[in-house]
User: Which sequence fits this backbone?
């Protein structure tokens, strides 16, 4: 039986979205990669509300979360999801350009599963995203409720 795996990518930079999607597609790492452009959309997706009210049930196997997004930043999304008993087991990886100690410490304090600084060079960025995808979508055993049988 095939399992359906979804990755949620919360990223407002269209170039980073393109690169991330291309890197993940190389390994066919998920049945679906959902892209949202800000923190409000990320929460709407996870909570199945607004434009995502009719999406299929089940949580993403991982959320790739940019920190600096419009409307609601990544830290606020992280804070809300990790405080929610029903959602706190969803793995969240920050994929950010911030090398600030404050951001790193705050994200781990809030419960992030991994903190990855986006490399500037194209080839390095693609390799980092491929590694993240392989680990979180193929190697890691996802929490209950995140994978549906097809």
Assistant:
């Amino acid at each position: 039986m095939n399992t359906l795996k979804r990755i949620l990518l919360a990223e407002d930079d269209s170039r980073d979205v393109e690169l991330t999607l291309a890197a993940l597609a190389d390994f066919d790492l998920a049945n679906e990669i959902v892209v949202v452009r800000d923190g409000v959309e990320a929460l709407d997706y996870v909570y199945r509300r607004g434009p995502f009210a009719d999406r299929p049930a089940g949580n993403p196997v991982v959320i790739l979360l940019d920190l600096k997004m419009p409307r609601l930043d990544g830290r606020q999304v992280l804070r809300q999801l990790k405080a929610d008993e029903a959602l706190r087991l969803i793995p969240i990886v920050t994929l950010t350009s911030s090398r600030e100690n404050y951001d790193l410490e705050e994200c781990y304090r809030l419960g992030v599963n991994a903190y990855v600084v986006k490399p500037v060079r194209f080839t390095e960025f693609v390799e980092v995203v491929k590694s993240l995808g392989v680990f979180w979508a193929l190697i890691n055993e996802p929490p209950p409720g995140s994978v549906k049988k097809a």
Notes: The CA atoms of residues 105 and 143 lie 24 Å apart. The chain has a mean pLDDT of 85.
